Amino acid sequence: MINPLAAGTAPRSKAGRLPWAGILLLGILSFSMNAAGKTPVRIGDPFPSFSLPDLSGASLSLPGGMRGKVVIIHFWTDSCGNCRDEMPALETLYSHYGGRGLVIVAINVGQTIAQVGKFVDGLKITYPVLLDADGKAAAICGVFGLPRTFILDREGVIRQKIIGEATAETLKKLLLPIL
Question: In the chain, which residues have pLDDT < 50?
Answer without folding.
Answer: 1-37
